[in-house]
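Before drawing any conclusions, I looked closely at one protein's amino acid sequence and its backbone structure tokens, quoted below without any editing.
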Amino acid sequence: MAAVAELAPAVGVRSACDTLGMARASYYRQQRLALSPAVAAARPASVRALSLGERETVLACLHQERFQDRSPAAVYATLLDEGWYHCSIRTMYRLLEQQGESRARRDQLTHPPYQKPELLATAPNQLWSWDITKLLGPVKWTYFYLYVILDVFSRYVVGWMVAPRESAELAKRLIEDTCEKQNIPRGQLTVHADRGFAMTSKPVAFLLADLGVTKTHSRPYTSDDNPYSESQFRTMKYRPEFPDRFGCIQDSRAFCQRFFPWYNDEHRHSSLALLTPAMVHYDQAPAILRYRQRILNAAYSAHPERFVRKPPAPPAVPTAAWINQPSPPSAERGTGGYPGIAAPLIVDPGGAETLTPRGEWPQPPSFTPHHALPPVWRGGRGPVRVTLDGHAGIIRPNPAPASAEARH
């Protein structure tokens, strides 16, 4: 609101509202309320309301020792049987609520606050996610349990196991063998999991402490806190060869022995620039991307007319993988839906050409702010084109057309 009011004299209300993402109707409504605030009329007392003395009488009855453990409905019925009527049951509840006496008196269970995990991986073997999923057995109510450990940065499955039951000792053995196979040094790895029995067990906790591995857990009943493992399970169970049921545990192990090599070495992952997890995990991505670029360059040289906008380039591999990436503060997000513009915006109405944000511009390296801004502001001083120069936006008024014919 304040930013629109400061910007409106220079570029007009419409341009200011469009740029800052505020509806003009909301701006004008708030302006009217600021000039003439509405005063709520006093509500007249109902002729059916109890007087002050009658309210005190009802409360005195409800506070009697014989009624301390009884509900207003039971009090109402007891007084009615004794020949007394003071008010309705709903009025009794209303009077108790006004006194702050209507809540449940028994102890209420309160869940402890759980902090949202915010985990970052910038290289393989920094952050692992593991989980257990059920595989349907040959008959109803029979299951086999698949344990999977996934590297969050590369999506590489570093360890897996199929067992007839969910066991903390089996999970401990799998994590220990996987850490040894990947040569994990102390203090480097964080292992994230949900709050299942095996994940929160003492054997697993003691093992991770002995290995110098940090462990974190999802919040209760929040599957979004473990998204990479859930996504990997979905990829597996949506494969065409995934059966409805497994005849025995050997069948499930045979399927996994085929699936996980395909997933690690052949599956082109959409979040990894269409590379396989093994390419990213074992640092083969730069060489492969350079080779892809040479192929694309040759295709561009042969038929440049087929690439209209720019020469082709392979997608880049992400440099970070987050679990619950924290949001930037509101002052850094901006006010009008254009990332990186801090609010409010200041414009010198005396003719200065610089639009300066208060605060820093938290731009990621690949972000180009001028693509997010509208190309033309139409304000009180005529069409105004906005461009960005480094960390400041420049407002350059276009010259007004000389005549009506010029506008056409």
